[in-house]
Amino acid sequence: AEGAKLWGGRFTGQIDPVMEQFNASIGYDKRMWRQDVRGSEAYAIAIHKLGLLTTEEKDQILEGLKTVYREWEEVKFEIKPGDEDIHTANERRLKELIGQAGGKLHTGRSRNDQVATDMRLWLIDEIDKLTTYLKEFLNVSLDRAEAEIDVLFPGYTHLQRAQPIRWSHWIMSHVVALQRDLARLEEIKKRTSEMPLGSGALAGHPFGIDREAMSIDLGFQSITGNSLDATASRDFVLEFLFWGSLTMVHLSKWAEDLSMYSSKEFHFVQLSDAYSTGSSLMPQKKNPDSLELIRGRTGRVYGRCSGYMMTVKGLPSTYNKDLQEDKEAMFDVADTLSSVLQIASGVMSTLTIHKEKMQAALSMDMLATDLAYYLVRKKVPFRDAHGLAGQAVALAEKKGCALSELTHEDYLGIHSAFEADITGIWDFEKSVNQYSATGGTAKDAVLAQIKTRKASLK
């Protein structure tokens, strides 16, 4: 196994088998086999242009890499002892296939710039998938918001009923937050799309390789500007882990709301059987496990982010083996977000709402603010109007009745500005539609939000 090491020349002793296993990353970085082959193909073409490979050797390498790619694709690639990482495994197999020419592929290249390139290529591919899943969730939510625009239900602050709002307005609150996440993801892709290949171990490339040409071949948007930073920086990983954490904050809040709304205490919504489970003891239970797992896995993503930040915070410049911890964090967060976004789309597209329960949860005390606004429209200063509305609430509580059941004489006893038209405010639809400013919960305002957000997704 020792002879297969890319670094084994100066070593004469045998490596401890426990150290061999401790050092190896092939168990997880084999996921980057496709990106590793792509990078090697571009590198072979580039060093051929420098005269470091003959045309025959270049063609042999490219043909051998095609075979390596095919073996991975067909799940026929055999990982052998000594294959400590994906780079070692692919190069070992290439040399088995084509002989000595395979040993020239690594000329001027280090695993330091190779792994950074592989990771960036892998993450770019994954960001494209996550972008698709996130847009699917947003489109499902927008379609639902448009279809259910006339449904009213309580808005909450401090988990207390506050003011009536549109169900679609609640949906749009999550759409807006997740569209910010989408914009952040697109920005991260731009910064990830900087190619480090050609930076060597740390000092750069000694043969004047054309990095710009390799960047174009591999589909990067630009190249890194400093070889020391290029081989050691994992900013792109950290940004992705933070993005995952913040996106999960928003999805966890969405899941928490729906989990409450699906309980019998609310019964505003009902999850499809496809996204629910039962109890092993209580036959009547229908548990929102899909939502609870989204909420639960938020902590897992946070852990990956904070854990890796602790790993890199005290490292000296350039490459250190601590950086090997980057891949499992990146893979796990990508996998988690991938499954969560798909589950969220499924939940949202199959959800049943109970309009009558939502309507029944609206109560006249939620129009206390409208009472204050009524007085404002009668030229009473808002701070005074707020206090007078509070007096009306206190009186209704004392009499054991709803605000709408207080008599006109009761209101006149509080302030002379209350006229007979006070009865006109006890209308939830009218209340909601007064919030017509941009971003509000009035029907036209919500429809405008939907239109704007749909246009931005095209």
Notes on the protein architecture:
The protein has a two-stranded antiparallel sheet with strand order 1-2. The model has no long low-confidence stretch (mean pLDDT 94). It has 18 helices and six strands. The protein is 60% helix and 5% strand. The longest helix has 37 residues, at 111-147. With 458 residues, it is mainly alpha-helical. The protein starts with 16 loop residues before the first helix and ends with a helix. Helix 3 packs across helix 6 (111-147), helix 4 packs across helix 5 and helix 6 (111-147) packs parallel to helix 12 (326-350).
Cα end-to-end separation? 53 Å
Strand residue content: under 5%
Beta strands, count: 6
Order of helices and strands: HHHHHHEEHEHEHHEHHEHHHHHH
Mean of all residue-level pLDDT scores: 94
Integer-rounded radius of gyration: 31 Å
Largest sheet: 2 strands, antiparallel
Number of helices: 18
Q: List low-pLDDT spans.
A: none
Overall geometric form: elongated
Q: How much helicity do the residues have? A: 55-70%
Give the strand line-up of the largest sheet. 1-2
Sheet/helix structural class: mainly alpha
